[in-house]
Queue: 3 jobs
Job 1
Amino acid sequence: MSGMSGIPRAAAGPLRHLLDVDQLSPAQLEAILVRAGELRDTGLMRADDLRGRRAALLFAEPSTRTRLSFEIAARNLGAETFLVEPRSSSMVKGETLADTVRNFNALGFDLLVLRHHRAGAPYVAARYFDGAVVNAGDGWHAHPTQALLDLLTLRRAFGGEAELRGRKVVIVGDVLHSRVARSNIQTLTRAGVAVWLCGPRGWLQGLEASSVTLTTQLADGLRDADAVMGLRVQRERMHGSAVSADEYVARYQVSEERLQIARPGAFYLHPGPINEGVEVTREVARGPRSLVLEQVRNGVAVRTAVLALLQPAAHARAAQDQATPRAIPSTRDLSSVAR
Ligand code: CP
């Protein structure tokens, strides 16, 4: 089936899981964005790609946008959805993620959408799950569908793929603890964007790379920027941080006044949830530059396109795929999920 896009799904190649954006071929990434764009243009979200399939949404961390948009996407495609909250599951009795996933197999689930506070947890799930696993955000590591929806949002805001190429996008804030930033750096770099990272020195550590420019000075980050991507200041991580909340506001809050040195009409994006008055002023977050709610709308389209590309032929493919162990990111703390 070609879906609604000009790129046949077969040409994009099958997608077994979506654990991070680095596993997507150019054709797969393009197929997701093209189909999601068409879904936004036509408003025709409903299809039968997952008719008869069962999707478990296991959210071991709070979420509003990601959980609801995955649920809407799976239902749009005809799947039955089941929300699993660890607090009311046997995980509170000590059942591991691996055992939980084995039980999902026995219950006949085809799809697992997983958000987890442990980086690498979706990679563990993919080792044990017979169907398709989609990473809905794992620790500080990755948030692939957020990066895809951000890329779609920027492309549409600038008028297309070619128009986005060569633009300057600055990601401001707590980059160190941000899975959104990590996945976005990959997709934006692939899109030919000049990516800048801006924040206190302690929040840029370990992010030096030839593909990005780092600065601790907001003015340098904003100068000539075509778009600014804010990140939530994670108050729970401020304890013992090199910067206090007041100092952060004084040095890094994105305001209309400070945006005067960006390109005229520069856009503002933020994955949410936003601390208005901390990382950004209300005027910017809710003003004409803001693409924040457009990102949320695009989230449903992107997640619908991702789930359609996965096409989990769960149990038929499982035995063959299990023969290939999946590498787990080495730096991740998996002690409580991999038992
Ligand atoms: N952007 C994002 O991941 O938001 P939620 O935590 O509400 O899903």
Job 2
Amino acid sequence: PKPLATRIAFVTGAASGIGKAIATRLAAEGACVVVADLDLAKAQAAAAELGSTDVAVGLAANVADEAAVQAALREAVLAFGGVDIVVNNAGLSLSKSLFDTTEADWDLQHDVMAKGSFLVAKNAARILVDQKLGGDIVYISSKNSVFAGPNNIAYSATKADQAHQVRLLAAELGEHGIKVNGINPDGVVRGSGIFASGWGANRAKTYGIEEQDLGKFYAQRTLLKREVLPEHVANAVYALCTSDFSHTTGLHVPVDAGVAQA
Ligand code: NAD
């Protein structure tokens, strides 16, 4: 692949949390970064933290809306001349039990994560294929794509959908030199803004603990006894996009301090 310092990254949901950490790491390695998120002002503010508009731009793009995705990708190409790395990170977790999950909940989770990541991957892959320079597509899936737990049925189903998208796209895009990999984080509660959306409160209730103890709770159930931070997920995205992983596609990398094996 092209060296990271010459590459252009399109990161969805990058105004906060894990996406912001990914955008920050890729920018620190010299890549030009497009911060795509729901709210234009927040996306632009996050991009401004990364540098001038020569190296980072913020765009509004609801990933569940194909016209918006196409417009954002067009703007990205206009700004930087192409796209080399695509990170499907945008998401939300309603964290509800089976009987609390409504049809609207199911549709929202699937619109953003199953459909949204497909729309981004499909439209970005068109650009990558036409450029004939290979590229990387990385999905931020979840431990929940593989492991079952309580109170997360709609969310987890979309994560399993994303995991299979990774395998299907790896198969379809491999001949174009495009690698498609997934990352399965777990328990990233600090610095991500997810407490505000109710995710933390619901999870804490499920485990019968206080919300502020969630980070420690997750750390204790890992093999490494470590809290997983957004930066740890960003490190894995960076690694997958370097030449060290030039022959790896269709892989899912756990970034969970070992909880999935515990
Ligand atoms: P977050 O809420 O801090 O960030 C998610 C971002 O996605 C927000 O900026 C939000 O505005 C954006 N977004 C939501 N809907 C969107 C849409 N339709 N279009 C564009 N942007 C949209 O949450 P986070 O924890 O950083 O989550 C990022 C990703 O990581 C999600 O896909 C999530 O499922 C996944 N993940 C998180 C954890 C964790 O423990 N936090 C674990 C596994 C997987």
Job 3
Amino acid sequence: NKPVTTSFIRKKKEEGTPITMITAYDYPTAKLVEEAGVDMILVGDSLGMVVLGYDSTVPVTMEDMIHHTKAVTRAAKTSFVVADLPFLSYHGTVEEAVKNAGRLMQEGLAKAVKMEGGSELVPIVTRCVQAGIPVVGHIGLTPQAVHQLGGYKVQGRDIEAAKKLLEDAYALQEAGAFAIVLECVPEEVAAHIASKLDIPIIGIGAGVRCDGQVLVFHDLVGYASQLAPKFVKRYTDVGEQIHAAVRSYMEEVEGRRFPATEHVFHANQETIQELYG
Ligand code: KIV
Ligand code: NA
């Protein structure tokens, strides 16, 4: 399969073909979702919650992001890998932001970076794009701002907020972002934004009329993810299968049924003779 590119993703929007994106944070997951043929893999800072067990994405560091991005890009050769810039890694100087975005590409081997925010990010997006770093924007519910937003709530419900979202989307597109994640907004607002913008709008909790969808891997397979929000669909329950497998293993160990003959090695006759007489 040919590697997915930004122009391929853009073309999907033009053709009206939905773009598929899933998060992954490690080698086996990246391998599995790439084999399934997903367009884009997001190394989301949601890893702080679903793999590191934090209460929010706020504690996630650049080192965490690089570590996990490296693991994902070792497996993903076809899917387009986007890595999140973590909390506060793009809120100092523009130079610092570009340097951190560059690290996700040079050390993590990501193909693009994602950052949360609207028009206030224009100088940073512009500089990243000038430097050859493809940028994905992220507006609506921006989890790094959870303590400011007062929880994980639907955004853009009233007309003022909806207009602000559209303005932010335009500003990011103008600055050179090649796609935007739009999280947890009413579907009517999301559909309006997707229809106005030339670049793909990847929705999560934003309805079916976006140009693509993204979900957190652990939520969609039921892999020990915490209380999932309304917009998540759990396609399978691997947690249940893992519980069953671990319980079977324990039972067999406790009943001395594992390991069985096919799992053991044998000493040669001479050794057995010496040991047992
Ligand atoms: O970190 C993440 O997983 C994300 C998606 C929810 C879009 O940013
Ligand atoms: Na994120």
